[in-house]
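Quick one:
INPUT:
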């Protein structure tokens, strides 16, 4: 089943219903509504799926199919630090698989997972548009170029330190 961060169900309901007002009368608006919901919550809470189903008269199974088809949508809250690791052709050839292994060894997470403490989330992407800098890792918008496995623990430590300072 889908995870949902503990939050006020009433608060979620109010926010989602308010967002859906503009989408109710627009045919084919499911994806845009889901985008907006994820923009507010950082993911699409399961309780929001049920509200969307009721308000837009779309079966939950169809909404779930859309959410799981598109890699963009998240069904659980991502961590505070989002690690985007490119595994496109250039990055793959230049060592992305070893970086994926290094992240797993360092954090114990795989693609689409978040650490138990809720700090780090890993998403493997197909291209970041930085092929000349391969392999590339982007962490919360900061680009790391020509990354090697030995860099991963340093990058993780840098971000863990920045989180604890806040």
């Amino acid at each position: 089943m889908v995870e949902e961060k503990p939050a006020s169900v009433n608060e979620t309901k109010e926010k989602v219903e308010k967002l859906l007002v503009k989408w109710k009368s627009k045919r084919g608006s499911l994806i845009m509504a889901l985008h907006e919901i994820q923009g507010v919550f950082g993911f699409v809470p399961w309780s929001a799926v049920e509200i969307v189903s009721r308000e837009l008269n779309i079966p939950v199974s169809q909404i779930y199919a859309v959410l799981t088809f598109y890699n963009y949508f998240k069904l659980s809250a991502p961590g505070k630090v989002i690690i985007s690791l490119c595994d496109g052709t250039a990055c793959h050839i230049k060592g992305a698989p070893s970086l994926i292994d290094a992240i797993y060894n360092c954090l114990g997470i795989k693609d689409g997972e978040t650490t138990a403490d809720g700090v780090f989330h890993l998403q493997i992407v197909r291209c970041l548009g930085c092929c000349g800098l391969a392999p590339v890792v982007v962490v919360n918008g900061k680009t790391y170029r020509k990354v090697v496995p030995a860099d991963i623990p340093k990058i993780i430590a840098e971000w863990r330190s920045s989180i604890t300072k806040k």
